[in-house]
Specification:
The chain is of the alpha/beta class. The protein has 9 helices and 6 strands.
Length: 227
């Protein structure tokens, strides 16, 4: 029986494209307005790629450093690296990412039904706390768990260990939800029940395990948890 619902943060609860999209809509951002979807895509891809490379080479840094490194690559790739104020603004907005519209009601439904609710993220504690406060979902979470206490990024099994240690659960009592197919696969391989939020309709990753549920958004998580 599921007692605990755990969510990845970036791309799952929080819209990682929001920083570039909002900055592009501001005055005097004409060049960014032309390229913001590509900027958001490259930034996210490099952020993830750098986290994996840091993990396998045992050269851990916090996720804020990885996030800045990914942005710097993306800005240079698109010829936008000559504006330090743009870089500063994008990083500021990343601390204030918007939650997807269904998130507050979904979390409230889980809490009203008695489930533990938590975040488990590669994000550093300060980043996560800033995003949680900005989105107004702090009262709906029982814990915000960061990989920083393990010194390695997901999908290393020691990261998933944090959930059972926090809530005194067994793995079959946990529903883990992520927008990243590789993260859902890692959690399924660990033993969690898993849901992959596949908003973009991407193909299934060919990895060590497959998610138990594939969703287009988070709306039905309370129903899945109760099954």
């Amino acid at each position: 029986m599921i007692t605990t619902c755990v969510f990845d943060a970036y791309g799952t609860l929080f819209d990682v494209a929001a920083a570039a999209r909002l900055a592009a809509a501001e005055p005097n951002r004409d060049k960014l307005a032309q390229h913001w979807p590509k900027l958001a895509e490259i930034w996210r891809n490099k952020q993830l790629n750098y986290s994996w490379l840091r993990a396998i080479t045992d050269t851990h840094v916090d996720f804020w450093t990885v996030t800045q490194n990914g942005l710097d690559y993306a800005l240079e790739a698109l010829g936008l690296d000559g504006d330090p104020k743009l870089r500063e603004r994008l990083l500021q907005l990343y601390w204030e990412l918007q939650a997807y519209e269904e998130v507050p009601a979904m979390l409230k439904s889980l809490k009203d039904s008695g489930y533990n609710c938590a975040i488990l993220s590669n994000g550093s504690p300060d980043m996560l706390n800033g995003a949680v406060r900005s989105a107004g979902i702090e009262p709906l979470l029982d814990a915000v768990l960061s990989v920083e206490s393990t010194g390695i990024f997901k999908p290393h099994s020691s990261v998933y260990d944090l959930v059972n240690a926090q809530f005194k659960t067994t793995s079959d009592q946990v529903l883990f939800v992520s927008s990243n197919g590789w993260d859902a696969a890692g959690a399924a391989n660990y033993g969690f029940q898993t849901a992959w939020v596949n908003r973009a309709g991407d193909p299934m990753d060919r990895l060590m395990a497959t998610p138990h549920h594939v969703l287009s958004d988070l709306t039905t998580i309370p129903q899945i948890a109760s099954k």
